[in-house]
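2024-03-11 09:14:02 DEBUG pipeline.ingest accepted 1 chain
2024-03-11 09:14:02 DEBUG pipeline.ingest length=212
2024-03-11 09:14:03 DEBUG pipeline.predict start
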Amino acid sequence: MKRYITALLIAANLIAGCTEQDSACCSKPAESAITTTSAKASLAAHTTEMSLYNLEGEWTNQHSEQLQLEALKGKIQMVAMIYTGCDYACPRIIADLKRIEAGIKEYKRSDVGIVLVTMDPANDTAEKLKAFAAKNKLDADRWTLLTSHEGNIQELSALLNVKYKKESNGYIAHSNIITVLDAEGEMVHQQEGLGIDPDETVNAISTLLKKI
């Protein structure tokens, strides 16, 4: 069943592709695209079948360590897809993540992690991800940067509903989505857009943290 659900989501993502309405990473979108909120509702049912940690692909973090997504289990995780060559949308995604992080500062740091997954594995090596983390002052105790084979990245992006498409100029057009996972790896909330008010996402995380 797990493989069947995953296959369906991948197929849907590849068919849909990255439409013209998706925000291009390195060109400034219209103001409406920046301010539109699409905070997804929590999933109606929580089952282990829907955990992203069922994915069996191998990943590499910014410290060149090999792991599977299951290694993220046990804490609340915020997940976003970016690439280091992006000079507009991705820095704003990171800024949005930091705003959310500031909103939960009263909770223990060990209870929440932040995961950045590259959409450009050909260029974003572990070494480049580590340099990117240092440049952006991302605390290694909380922030995990991941790369993998293209197939693993496409599989994860389908489950996160993140669409991306490489352009002829080398840039990548992509969705701008921050996903909140519970401690078991199930999606409970999504924030879509750039510069979004973080209150709904902060509240979703706070609700999960109160149950720990």
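2024-03-11 09:14:41 DEBUG pipeline.report The mean pLDDT is 83.
2024-03-11 09:14:41 DEBUG pipeline.predict end
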